[in-house]
Amino acid sequence: MISPGCTNCYAMRMAGRLQAMEHRSYEGVTRKSGTRQIWTGKLHFNVSALEIPLRWRQPRRVFVNSMSDLFQDGVPANFIKKVWGVMERAHWHSFQVLTKRPDNMRDVLKAANLQPLENVWLGTSVESADYIERIKVLRTIPAAVRFVSFEPLLGAVGRPSLSGIHWAIVGGESGPSARPMEPAWVTAIQENCEKHRTAFFFKQWGGVNKKKSGRKLNGRTWDAYPRPLLFAAE
Questions:
Q1: Beta strands 145-150 and 61-64: pairing type?
Q2: Which residues contact 61 (CB under 8 A, 6 or more apart)?
Q3: Closest C-alpha among 108, 101, 16, 93 to residue 59
Q4: Domain identity same for 35 and 57
Q5: 149 and 36 co-located in one domain
Q6: Residue 134: inside a domain, yes or no?
Q7: CA-to-CA distance for 209 and 39, rounded, in angstroms?
Q8: 89 and 197 share one domain
Q9: Domain check: are 110 and 59 in the same one?
Q10: Per-residue pLDDT tens over the stretch 156-179
Q11: Per-residue b or e along 146-171, where b marks 16 or more CB atoms closer than 10 Å to that residue's CB
């Protein structure tokens, strides 16, 4: 667990279930700690799955590694280069790569000389003001679209500079142990996005029953997406 946003991660629960079902890709990745699942740090590299997007003929928006972090410690640069190569070949899709380790992302992409791709969006997670520095690091990485996922939003983030950030996603934590999200935290981000002309997407209020709590902010839904253009790093 790299920061508090990981505490109630859906991926840990799902990985625990898949591990119990003896799914080979999840063997040994979690263990029980009391009533909770936690990561063990074991990594699996499913090379055979890499080229699946090349078989999808209709354009899709693909969330890369939805159950893990492509730039977590221990992922070899050669594997990341293979992922990058598939995204380049599958140019008709849009790929969203989200990490809690933007410093790793910056260093690996630079060392491997992986150039920005017009169909690849790079983002980082920020759950509270304690992790604002991740935005500053992300801003230094060349990308067609840079985005910040304020999810799960666990505290106020204030009004950090969103210069060079093209999209912001905000969402509350959901599930049986969900921590609350204050409306003022969300409104501050939305207003900050307007100031910086950053597309704003409000995903959910979350809570134990996320369907009941809905996803309206100030009486409306917010579903903006950025226009993918190639921007240099600052």
A1: unpaired
A2: 93, 94, 96
A3: 93
A4: no
A5: no
A6: yes
A7: 25
A8: yes
A9: yes
A10: 999 999 999 999 999 999 988 899
A11: bbbbbbbbbeebeebebebbbbbbbb
